[in-house]
Structure formats: structure tokens, C-alpha cells
Amino acid sequence: GDSSTHSDSMLRNVSNKKASIWSGFHQKPIKDRINLLKRLYPTLDGDIFLKGSLTPAQADMMVENCVGKIELPLGLGLNFLINGKEYVVPMALEEPSVIAAASSVAKFVSERGGGFKVHTTAPVMASQIVFIGVNYSNAKYLVDMNSQKIVDFCNSHCRVMVSYGGGCRGVRTKKIYELQTEDESRDVMVVELLIDVQESMGMNLCNTLAERC
């Protein structure tokens, strides 16, 4: 009714105001684009966009066998309305038209669909250990009975991650399938360590904990 019409009107006003801010942004020189960002975000260090690149020493600290560095253009995805809040999304890539297309779609969605609605899950990864030829019921019982010991063991080997609020959160088992032999059936079981990796990629940590278990 009236409330729905009022909400739609407010959304159009917000979208129109946002559109006026970024109107012609792609036609401006880089210096003018940065000046606009400084006006919108007064605490922003705009100069870092032009001089912010890795030194050879920094690059060498980040990867093995470093021989140099490659720089990419940094552009802005515009018109993003995410969970009711406007965002400018930095995108570092080399391919033309991607940022323009993303900005165009974001504008369409924000004006006609109310923007993007998103949520995240906890940063928990599953590190898998596979057991072949076991009795699943017996093996699951042993894992369940010792789950806290397994969690404590894992956390004793990732103290830095634990200090950041992450670490092993639990253990679970899965029966994959049965192996038929002449004498009896045996199962293939997966034991999963549930690792909270916080802000890290987590792959190396998950592999390390599975190997140590």
C-alpha cells in the first residue's frame, strides 16, 4: 500500500543521489577520480593509489623463489548496494569491460531489486583423513569417545591460530562406502577435523593438522 510506495520512492531517491555522485566517473582523469574519493572519504590516503606497490624486498618475503613483481590496474566497482549499505568495490584486474559490466549490473540490481542481500558462514574448513578397510561403527565410536582429545591435540599444534580466535572446533566422521571382501565387509571412513581458519586461506594449516593426527 502507501508504505510500499513510500519505500520505493526512498530507494529511487537514494539511487538517484548515488548516480549523480558517480555520473561520468569513467570519463574523468585519474587525478579527478582520486579527488572525488577524498571528498567522499576524508580519511582516505588517496596518494597511496598511485605509489602503493610492493618493493622487491616485500615481494621476496611473500613468496618463494621470487624474481620480480607484476602490477595490475586498480579500478572501482560502483553502484553496489549490499545489505542496505552503499559500497565502492576495489577490483585489481587486467581485463577490459569487467568493471564496467559489474558496475552496470550493480546499478540495475540496486535500482530495481533493492540491492544484494548477502551473509557469510563461519570460516571453518574440513581437513579429511581417510581410513580404508575399517568397521565404521567401531571406528566412529573410538573417534567420538576421543573427540575432545583430538581437538586438544590439534590446538596444541596451532597455538598461533588459537591466539587469533581460531583452531580446531570439532571432529566428525562419514562413511563413504563398503568394501566387499571374501570374508567380510569393510568400510571406507573419512574423519574430518573442523578447523576455524579465521582470515587465513587455511589450506596449509588443515593439511598439517591432518598429517600430525
UniProtKB/TrEMBL annotation:
Q: Which keywords does this Swiss-Prot/TrEMBL entry list?
A: Oxidoreductase
Matching entries from InterPro entries are given as: HMG_CoA_Rdtase, HMG_CoA_Rdtase_cat_sf, HMG_CoA_Rdtase_NAD(P)-bd_sf, HMG_CoA_Rdtase_sub-bd_dom_sf
Might you name a Gene Ontology BP term for this protein? Answer: coenzyme A metabolic process
Q: Which residues form a coiled coil?
A: none
The record ties this protein, via PROSITE patterns, to: HMG_COA_REDUCTASE_4
**Which GO terms of the molecular function aspect are on file?**
hydroxymethylglutaryl-CoA reductase (NADPH) activity
Q: Which positions make up the signal peptide?
A: none
Q: Among its keywords, does the record have Chaperone?
A: no
Write down the superkingdom of origin. Answer: Eukaryota
Q: Which family is this sequence assigned to?
A: Belongs to the HMG-CoA reductase family.
Name of protein: Hydroxymethylglutaryl-CoA reductase (NADPH)
Q: Which organism is it from?
A: Euplotes crassus
